[in-house]
Design brief:
This protein is an alpha+beta fold and about 130 residues long. It has a single domain (about 1-125), classed as TATA-Binding Protein, CATH 3.30.310. The chain is about 45% helix and about 30% strand. Strands 1-5-4-3-2 form a 5-stranded antiparallel sheet. The longest helix has 20 residues, at about 105-125.
């Protein structure tokens, strides 16, 4: 259910590569959450960096939402980048596994397409 890749690239390079790959695959990065910063504002120190990229392809999102509106609970897709300089992990929940939980077989092909793109984007970003 979880797909991960390791990278020794600096975070700024991972972010730049992810942005470029997302655009090349017709995905948008809706927002980036800096989880460590958010927690620090709540007086909680996280032991490492953690960024969550919310990514979406609106055409694919419409396909799954038209088939089953409750899929909105699993959107947008997320790619996490966590660790510290010199060693980051990129991770995502696999869309095929997530869509299985909705029990709507017609979601499978869309999930597989999105999953292939997420993996490619992560591979591009990880270097």
């Amino acid at each position: 259910m979880l797909y991960t890749l390791d990278s020794k690239l600096p975070f700024v390079e991972i972010q730049q590569r992810l942005e470029e790959s997302a655009a090349a695959h017709k995905f948008g990065i809706l927002t980036v959450h800096n989880l460590a910063e958010t927690m620090r504002k709540k007086s909680v120190e996280l032991g490492s960096e953690c960024y969550i990229f919310e990514v979406c392809n609106p055409i694919q999102a419409k396909r799954v939402l038209d088939a089953h509106p409750a899929v909105s609970t699993a959107l947008p897709c997320r790619i996490s980048v966590y660790g510290s300089e010199g060693h980051y992990t990129l991770a995502t929940l696999l869309p095929t596994a997530l869509m299985e939980s909705f029990g709507v077989p017609e979601l499978g092909p869309v999930a597989a397409d999105v999953e292939a793109v997420l993996k490619a984007m992560m591979q591009d970003a990880a270097g």
